[in-house]
Design a protein that fits this description.
alpha/beta, Rossmann fold, 6-stranded parallel sheet, globular
């Protein structure tokens, strides 16, 4: 039986990124001696219960690799060193090491699953946010990065993210072709295998009718998600069609208090705008099955799990033409560049039954790729390859 070490942060908030490590843990606990390294030990069980994943804590070893008083807000290179040393010790006893929190240094080659663009290399993050174009940086920023990556980290025995990615002994798994393309443009060729993360929500037969005028959003309510732009799109579509479209958003308004207050004020001025709070389990299912359309606005998203949930629940999602989400929808007729473009698409869906039915058929086909059954088959095949590989050592 293989000894497997899996790292994932399991921080203070629960999001779609938790799905993949939870699914890996649920599968690996059945066939391996599994050690799960986390930043916050208490959050593993809470996350599993939140998302309904069957994790048996008696079949795995859970180790917190950060200090007891750890806080992400206070993270620095010395906390990274603390975590690295603990991971390195654990890795010595493992046959296979996996990171589901993007790039981590285990002191030996590992399987690194990318779950976001901002994975700890600020130079790459700036490059990605600049849409792959040239990045102008202050000399002080370049000097600071050089001292950190080329002086301090080597002195402490740690590798930079760049060194890990460019090491052909490491195995890197981007979560979309969009991320893979960006990483290749920045780092050059690397040991890459595309692997889409799981979608846990799937539609079930429902006797409840969908509201044909209801537009949905579910996810984190933070500035990066551009909720105010989505509200603008619905407002424009209402004006174009003369129909009483409504917009309902599920998520915590208090996650970013100032932003949440701004959105609450917008809702006070618009009777058709509703914030439903955080929804899980059956409440989430009822919410996703209640509407007909979904809007997404984040342009720098590595993948977009919520968009796969929209497809799986029978919604027609409209997404921007940048980031990982167009790859999920795979239709130029459902992607937009400007807010006016998005409003025109939403209005077209409302007034043209033939177009709407065409898009419903397309979305139903795309949903099959992201079904739980399809994901579990991909995961089974990949984990078998990983466990049967011959790991090298540094």
């Amino acid at each position: 039986m293989k000894n497997v070490l899996l790292y994932y942060s399991f921080g203070f908030s629960f999001g779609g990124g938790d799905y993949l490590p939870l699914m890996f843990i649920a599968a690996l606990q059945k066939t391996c001696n599994l050690t799960v390294a986390v930043d916050m030990a208490c959050n593993l069980e809470r996350s599993a219960k939140t998302f309904g994943i069957d994790i048996d804590l008696t079949k795995l070893k859970v180790v917190q690799v950060t200090p007891p008083d750890y806080s992400p807000k206070k993270h620095n290179v010395f906390l990274s060193l603390y975590r690295f040393r603990r991971l390195k010790r654990l890795a010595k006893e493992a046959d296979v090491c996996l990171s589901a929190s993007s790039i981590m240094d285990f002191g030996r080659p590992a399987h690194q699953f990318i779950n976001m663009i901002a994975f700890g290399d600020p130079a790459f993050t700036a490059f990605a946010q600049n849409r792959g174009g040239p990045v102008r940086e202050r000399l002080s920023t370049k000097v600071k990065r050089f001292l950190s990556d080329s002086v301090l980290r080597p002195l402490l025995g740690m590798r930079s993210k760049r060194d890990i990615i460019c090491d052909r002994r490491e195995r890197i798994y981007p979560n979309s072709r969009f991320v893979e393309k960006l990483m290749t443009a920045f780092y050059g060729p690397f040991n890459s295998t595309l692997f889409y993360p799981p979608t846990l929500f799937e539609a079930e037969p429902s006797v409840l009718p969908r509201d044909p005028l209801k537009v949905l959003y579910i996810g984190r309510i933070i500035p990066e998600k551009r909720l105010e732009e989505i509200i603008d799109i619905v407002e424009r579509a209402r004006a174009l069609t003369g129909l009483d479209l409504t917009f309902h958003a599920a998520g915590r308004l208090d996650q970013t208090p100032a932003y949440g207050k701004k959105l609450s004020q917008m809702a006070e001025e618009r009777t058709w705008l509703k914030f439903e709070g955080a929804l899980y389990g059956e409440e989430k299912k009822r919410f996703l099955l209640s509407g007909s359309y979904a809007l997404h606005a984040e342009r720098d998203e590595a993948f977009g799990i919520s968009v796969t949930e929209y497809l799986s629940s029978g919604l027609i999602p409209i997404v921007p033409d940048e980031g990982g989400t167009p790859e999920i929808v795979d239709s130029s007729e459902l992607t937009y560049h400007t807010l006016e473009d998005a409003a025109q698409i939403l209005a077209h869906l409302q007034v043209d039954a033939a177009f709407r039915e065409k898009m419903q058929r397309h979305c139903a086909e795309r949903a099959k790729l992201f079904s739980r059954e399809a994901y579990e088959e991909r995961q089974k095949e990949l984990l078998a390859q990983i466990l049967n590989s011959n790991p090298s050592t540094l």
